[in-house]
Design a protein that fits this description.
Layout: H1 5-9, H2 12-23, H3 30-40, E1 46-47, H4 49-58, H5 65-77, E2 82-87, E3 90-94, E4 100-105, E5 110-115, E6 139-142
Parallel strand pairs: 4-6
Antiparallel strand pairs: 1-3, 2-3, 4-5
Helix pairs in contact: 2-3, 4-5
Length: 145
Amino acid sequence: MAKAISEIQTPPAAKAAAERLRQAGLRPTRQRVELASHLFGGPDRHVTAESLHDEAVRAGSSISLATVYNTLHQFTAAGLLRQVIVDAARGYFDTNTGDHQHFFLEEEGTLIDIPGDEIAVSGVPVPPEGLAVDRVDVVVRVRRA
């Protein structure tokens, strides 16, 4: 059976990204597939909306920064990303959604993963009635010695 033209012209990374989006319950629009290809095409990483936008533009995309922000939040809501807020002005999106925490190197604006089994959080208070603790985020601020 002959392949459809769209199948022949679609790179494998884009096909994998589109399938990942479908599995997360998201429609694989062109912009979502482009951004998912950048985000999930390699090892886990931490990005800001601005850094991902710059990467996409350098690769030839004409996507707006607002679309990148919206898409990152959609990916987060669908469970594809985890948002890490380091302060009121800085937030990152993490492709590693597993159990882990972060070192934050402020001078460089860099997040470094701390494996989940290397840190323990104790003394988490009991939440008010009707609420449950979803997760605890720990950001350990570090500097070069």
